[in-house]
Design goal:
elongated, two-stranded antiparallel ribbon, alpha+beta, 2 helices
Amino acid sequence: MSVESAGVGEVSADPEAVSAILAKYDRIRTDAYRPADSLRLIKEALDEWTSMS
């Protein structure tokens, strides 16, 4: 498995490390908004931000 983050990459064939990384990504995916919901929230924040002036 290859894992990349801000400027750092790592490749691992260790089953325990791969399982731990996959579990973390699963938790992130579970908590993430759907793309349409994310876009709506971003647009709402933009509207609020730009109306403050």
